[in-house]
Design goal:
oxidoreductase activity; alpha/beta; SDR_fam; seven-stranded parallel β-sheet; 7 strands; Rossmann fold; NADP
Amino acid sequence: MSISIEGKVALVTGANRGIGKAIVESFLTNGAKKVYLAVRTPETTSELVNKYGDQVVTLKLDVTKTESVEAAAEAIQDLDILVNNAGILVPADPLSDHVETSLQQELEVNTFGLIRVAKAFAPQLEKNKGALVQMNSVVSLRTFPHVSTYSASKAASYAITQALRETFLERGVQVLSVHPGPIKTDMAKQAGLEDGESPSAVAQGIIDALANGDFHLFPDAMAQTFEAAYQSFSDSVITADFSE
């Protein structure tokens, strides 16, 4: 199962900066028909709107609120590709005073947000035989203490992504799980990571992975070291057919 970006209509959550913004720009450069910019604060998409005009449509969406997600799904009916990129990071080691609060906040956005958008947009994706792209992380596979709660939220979202892959498979919807390492974004700076690859590497990787029909994408050099170690397990367990 694979899908080309060309001529497609996409929606990107968290489209106003970082990886989300790079995805929007790469999709349009590679022939996407239109991209919905799904953000909590519509004013933050002005740069993209000025640059791309009617190729982009700003859509107010808060992934922490079911009613907001459902309203967005009702407002558009032409979706082919959904990129769930919105996420938050609240650095916390497992013994921090704020560790429970951090985990609650990150689960609300990073995990429950995925569930909300997948449920709301599933009918459109099924009708159009589209694709769901979920922004996970290498920390969904290996926890680092200073981002322990973020790692937990991404491990949970990766588990849900695996279930969505199998659920959507028989309905003709492709699912892609993206696992970047350090990328030059504001979120990476929050985690103390000043160096990293360009967000455009993730964006182009998504386009290529969708065209190839891949389930996993490890788009940067650090992530690819994880991929090399993980590939055998993935083939034997994660994407193996256990239905028999």
